[in-house]
Structures are given as structure tokens and as C-alpha cells.
From TrEMBL:
Keywords: Flavoprotein, FMN, NADP, Nucleotide-binding, Oxidoreductase, RNA-binding, tRNA processing, tRNA-binding. It comes from Limibacillus halophilus. Belongs to the Dus family. DusA subfamily. GO terms for molecular function: flavin adenine dinucleotide binding; FMN binding; tRNA binding; tRNA-dihydrouridine20 synthase activity. This is tRNA-dihydrouridine(20/20a) synthase. The active site is at C83 (proton donor). Its EC number is 1.3.1.91. FMN binds at Q53, K122, H155, N195, G196, G197, G218, R219.
Amino acid sequence: MMDWTDRHDRFFLRLLTKRTLLYTEMVTTGALLHGPRERLLAFDRAEHPVALQLGGCDPAELAEAAAMGEAAGYDEINLNVGCPSDRVQNGRFGACLMAEPTVVAAGVAAMRQAVKIPVSVKCRIGIDQMDDYGDLRAFVDIVSQEGGADCFIVHARKAWLKGLSPKENREVPPLIYGSVYRLKQERPDLIVVINGGIQSLEEASAHLDEGVDGVMIGRSAYQNPYIMAAADRAFFGDQAAVPERREIVVQLLPYIERQMSRGVPLKSITRHILGLYNGLPGARVWRRVLSEEAHKPGAGPEVVSRACEQVEELLARKAAA
């Protein structure tokens, strides 16, 4: 979810669901150690609970980066061992590290020693020719036994490190959910979270019925974010009413004003909310107003308000017809 789940997207998602755990984009240890760490680690306190996702392989650097994340206030540190992009491979982090479980274990152990907050690992069910269930189980066993990891978020697709683009790696390899179910059955002491191709809360519930401990929803939550509005009621027993879309927009406006006062362009926020009305008759109007007007000089929160008003008027007319 690099370039997607930035702090503005996470604040927006938090207006939809208060209880689900949000994850940052993957941040490399090199960027944190040698780059603008304050900007990279910045987040709004309203985002809690939120996990910092790291990319890296050097135990000392991972430990230092994890300590930075804990000091910044994050609730969890997550090591990404699932991203298959060429840039990630060239940096020796991401999915290529599934071929080096002892390296991952050393990194996890170093992070666990450096912080008091939970440390989790996100991986695939396999890579290249290492795609047998036994390979997944061996990887998990080494990282859990040698590194102390007790939580694995498993994308139920293998990754082809050569020959497929990152987009193709999200779509071409088949989803094999059974491997993740089996991992939980055979390693019941571990926290196992399933990920990959999950489109709705109904699908998430079906996966939970198979025994996994949690469900991660990625691109569907970005492209059709309103599916998350019922998550607190469905999975956490929250009895509060599911927020309406217009309520979410109203709550977002003060945040937009604050961020713009700090120099953040309106389009940097509105690009994350284009999918709010997906599936409704006004979705095209909402996207058009935001896409055409948010980038213009002088554009401010009134653009979002106007888009919402137009959509809600259209929906009211449809309901009355």
C-alpha cells in the first residue's frame, strides 16, 4: 500500500472505523535513519490504533527504526516480508527475504528486544519455487522460534519475484486461503491474520469462521472505503450507529482546514476519498467535482462540501422519485 495509506488516508479511515488496526505505508529503515524521520513518522493521534510497517533486513537498523516508531507513539511494529517490487528486492527487503528466514528471525529478535510494543510479520504463502505449504510452515517456524515472532499476517498468494509486476503479483498467482487456515490449525499458539483479495466484511467474517485470528483488508478498503463503516459493529460489538457518508465528510472538513494551514495541498487529501460514494448514483459526480477542482489554486474545504451537497441532493431526488 505504498503511496496509498499515508497519514491523510488513515485519518479518513478512522472516521469510518474506530477499532480496526490501521497500518502505515511501508517505510524503509534507510529512510528513517538517514531521511526526514519526523515527517515519515508523523501521524494524527486520532489514528490510534496504528502500526508502523518497516522494510529492512539489518537487525541493528531494524531495532533502531522500531525504537523510533515506539517513541513516536505507534501501537505496533510490522516487518514487511511480502512486497515483491523490484525496488524492494534491490534493497534486500520485502518478499525476497522469505528465502532467508534466519535473517528475518534475527531482525524480529532485535526489534522485540528494542521495543515493548508488539512486533508482527507480514509475508506471502511463498515465493517463486518455494511455494509448497511446507516452505511456509518452515519459514514461520524459524521466525517464530528463533526470532520470537508470535503474529503473522499472511497474504494468501505466492509472489513471483521475477517475471511479474507488483500489480500482477496481486492478481495472477491464485489465492490459496487453505494454506493460511492450515497454518493456524497447526500452529494454534500463533496469531495468524489472513490477507489477499478480501472484498467485504461478509468475506472477512467467513474467513474468521475458518479459525484465523484476524483479517487484513487492503485495496478494497481504499477503493471502496465505506465498507469499513460497519466494521466496529460487526466485529467489535460496538452498538453506535454506522456513520453516514455525509457525517464522515463533515467530520473530515476541520482536518482538511488544519492540514491546509500547514501547507498540505487539498488534492493530497481528496485523492484518498474518491471512493466514498462508490456504488451509489452520485459516485461519478463526487469523483468529478473533487478531481476537477481540488487541484485548482485557492481550492479549499468548500470543494469537498460542494461535492457532498451535490451528491446528497441527487440521492434525495432518487429516493423521492
